[in-house]
Specification:
Radius of gyration: 33 Å
Shape: rod-shaped
Oligomer: single chain
Structural class: mainly alpha
Strand content: under 5%
Length: 164
């Protein structure tokens, strides 16, 4: 009997939802789904309605009113609230692990490279002049030294990744 009722009401619900949905700013499929849910809840608690067609029309209009109230109360965000910067715990843990691995590799570099790269990676965002003063070298030799150190770091990390 329930299957027959649903089959009988389907075309009427589709027509009613299509007619009412756009005026309320609702998608017809969303409206249909809400009414089907309401009907299933009713069938479970009180049984089938005496006048299924009349009940369905009233249910559609009731859902449209509910949708209008909801739409009136909702306010869009000025900016998108979703944080797509990878700040979830998994991304933070992976970034911290990569940072530790990088700093560990930097400490194993030869000569002045560890101090130079630590200064470049510093959260203080030091200028070349400040780094050169901190390391006691000329500012002009900082670029070539940095290139040499980054080459050493690249070779070190490449061999470590290949060994794994």
């Amino acid at each position: 009997m329930t299957h027959d009722l649903l089959a009988t009401l389907r075309p009427l619900l589709t027509a009613e939802a299509s007619a009412e949905a756009h005026a309320s700013g609702t998608e017809p499929a969303d409206l249909e789904q809400a009414v089907w849910l309401r009907l299933l809840e009713r069938l479970d608690s009180a049984g089938p309605p005496r006048d299924p067609h009349g009940w369905l029309r009233r249910a559609v209009r009731s859902e449209v009113r509910r949708s209008r109230r909801t739409n009136r109360l909702e306010r869009p965000y000025a900016d998108e609230p979703v944080d797509d910067t990878g700040r979830d715990p998994e991304h933070l843990a992976l970034a911290a692990a990569r940072g530790r691995a990088l700093r560990d590799a930097v400490r194993r570099l030869p000569g002045r490279c560890p101090r130079l790269l630590e200064a470049l990676l510093s959260p203080k965002d030091l200028t070349y002049r400040e780094i050169a003063g901190e390391l006691g070298i000329s500012q002009g030799s900082l670029g070539p030294e940095r290139s040499r150190c980054l080459g050493c770091l690249r070779r070190l990390l490449t061999s470590e990744v290949a060994a794994r």
